[in-house]
Write a structure and sequence with these properties.
Length: about 130
């Protein structure tokens, strides 16, 4: 059973992750210079930019719905793992003089999502059992 403090903490994690995911969508969907640069450097512009934006939108929505938080956390952690690996492998920590801001945002969403994923493990296992 969740206490009031733990429930509050989970909502903070959900909101932080969802807000970061949602605020980057404007840049992805509007074709902002930074987004085009990143996805061009990765060799997946424009379809990779649009697809990742759609997936991040879905993850953010699922994170904010208590019944689907585990699924949202799974999706968000996967997308952010890809972002982190892209930064460490091809992009670098600092992209277009952002002082590592995008990398830090990816880490924050990843950590919040992993915590939510661990906490909602039973929820995910229940979905898997229903799918069988």
């Amino acid at each position: 059973m969740q206490t009031k403090k733990s429930s509050w903490f989970l909502w903070v994690l959900r909101i932080i992750a969802a807000v970061i995911l949602l605020q980057t969508l404007f840049f992805k969907f509007s074709g902002a210079e930074e987004s085009v640069y990143i996805f061009s450097k990765l060799g997946v512009e424009p379809w990779g930019r649009i697809l990742s934006g759609v997936i991040e939108l879905i993850a953010a929505i699922l994170l904010l719905i208590p019944a689907t938080t585990g699924i949202g956390a799974l999706i968000a952690s996967g997308v952010m793992a890809g972002a982190i690996l892209s930064h460490l492998g091809k992009l670098g920590i600092v992209v277009m003089d952002d002082h590592g801001q995008l990398f830090i945002y990816a880490l924050i969403v990843f950590i919040a999502s992993i915590i939510l994923l661990v906490i909602h493990k039973a929820q995910l296992l229940a979905y898997l059992k229903k799918a069988k």
